[in-house]
Amino acid sequence: MRLLIKNATIFEKNKPLQTDILIEDGVIAKIEPNINLKADKSKADKNKNTKGNNIIKTIDATGLTALPGMIDLHVHCREPGATHKEDFLTASHAAVAGGITTFFDMPNNSPPTSTLAALEEKRNLAKKSVVNYGFNFGLVKTSEAIATNDLKSDKKIQHKKSKKSKGKKASADAKTDKISKGKITYNLEEAKESQKYKCVKAVKVYLGQTTGNLMIDDLKVLEHLFLTTKMVMLHIEDDKLEEVLELFSNYCKKNTSSKTMLYICHVNSKKMVELIKKYKKQKHIEDRLFCEVTPHHLFLNNEDAKMLGRLAYVKPLILTKDDQKALWRALEDGTIDVIATDHAPHTLEEKNNPDITKVPAGMPGLETALPLLLNAVHEGQLTVNDITKLYSTNPAKIFGLKKKGRLKEGFDADIVLVQQKLKKRIINDNLLTKCKWNAFSNKELFGVPVYTLVNGNLAYEYDKFTDKKTLHDIQGREIE
Ligand SMILES: [Zn+2]
């Protein structure tokens, strides 16, 4: 199968360059101006090995910028357990419309992705995704002290809350985990096993506020995890961050042969980025400590959040202008490595629950992340190369994804073609996410994904004249 993209603009060292891109069997075969198909074809005809390589499609990309497909390391597809909010198919449709060609799903489902059986179930469900996909495994408590005195009362409350849902799971986990009474235990054995799967790149740990048995409050468990996992991905609030960074720093000093990495999700405050910056200066952890920022923390502050009300309720919270500015500075100075959406859809009904204590945290983001970033390029806050680096190249490098994250011969043909000068308004009804709302609705943004290709297959196209979005029935691949 061959596909030729004609006259696309690519950016090399921030300089625009017009070129053609030839795709063969899902891989970028050639990037050069004026690729002559006829001359190429006669050569191909002589070569028996390329028999059947018939040209099936040409895309005229005049006026469009080609970028490697975005790679989102932090997405909640909500399946299994909450498919009224989203599922792998609708999340992947939202992804291609947003120029994302690979995403990694988070484990806080019901049941959580914290056993190998749950992982297998999820691998099966994810097959309907039109984008490439992988998973982050969840660390959970498998048993907890019942009557020990050294537990704080809030832990007891937490225990009571999660007890109901834990009964079933505990019996499944009992096979692989020792459950000792009077002591908190975790699914460390299964977390270790999960690392043998090529599609699992990290173990996600929720330190701090979240629900049920995914909430981990004992930092000691991290030391065990560091020994057995490729990467620990942390949801952490800034009060515990320094302690964890110190722990990781000491671990790296002691275990010089270990290659374990630590990845801090969604930094939201000046304090967080300053701490991370400080620790990144330590030679022994500089290439093992990473952090991500979300578009909502970059493009919103607490004044915007006040206007948006419950829709802007996310964890960690959207903070002040001062914090927002610090995040932008951290992007510029390289403290922040990755942009990821933390796409966390809830229905509007759920977000508008009259009982404020029941409003769930999180917002959708897959369709608007790249347009927001392209709009920032339009406003001079970022360059196209910054977007490529932060939302494609770095995520691929950090997660060890081979042949992804760059427009390069021999790399997978995961490509998005965007029209930078086209302005488009975000309208709830037109969104492909199942929850059909967005915190940036009614905003007009410069920069629209027009074609998205996954493994060389056209997955999505947008017609600016009719405002029509076309989705193609293709299948993404599980990450290797
Ligand atoms: Zn998340």
Q: Can you walk through the features of this model?
A:
- The protein is α/β, with parallel strands linked by helices and 480 residues long.
- It folds into two domains: 2-60, no CATH class; 69-140 and 187-405 and 423-442, Metal-dependent hydrolases (TIM Barrel, Alpha-Beta Barrel).
- Helices cover 31% and strands 25% of the residues.
- It is built from 14 helices and 20 strands.
- The strands form four sheets. Strands 6, 7, 8, 11, 12, 13, 14, 15 and 16 form a nine-stranded parallel sheet that branches. Strands 5-17-18-19-20 form a five-stranded antiparallel sheet, covered by helices on one side. It has a four-stranded mixed sheet with strand order 3-2-1-4, with no helix packed on it.
- Helix 8 (270-280) packs parallel to helix 11 (321-332).
- It is globular.
- It starts with a strand and ends in a 9-residue tail after the last strand.
- Bound molecules: zinc ion.
- Residues 74, 76, 106, 342, 344 line the site of zinc ion (ZN).
What's the short story on this structure?
This protein has 480 residues and is of the alpha/beta class.
What topology emerges from the helices and strands here?
Layout: E1 2-12, E2 15-24, E3 27-32, H1 37-46, E4 55-60, E5 65-68, E6 70-75, H2 88-97, E7 100-105, H3 116-125, E8 132-138, E9 141-143, H4 153-173, E10 185-186, H5 188-194, E11 200-207, E12 215-216, H6 220-228, E13 231-235, H7 238-254, E14 261-264, H8 270-280, E15 289-293, H9 295-299, H10 302-308, H11 321-332, E16 338-339, H12 348-351, H13 369-378, H14 384-398, E17 415-425, E18 444-454, E19 457-463, E20 468-471
Parallel strand pairs: 1-4, 6-7, 7-8, 8-11, 11-12, 11-13, 13-14, 14-15, 15-16
Antiparallel strand pairs: 1-2, 2-3, 5-17, 9-10, 17-18, 18-19, 19-20
Bound molecules: zinc ion.
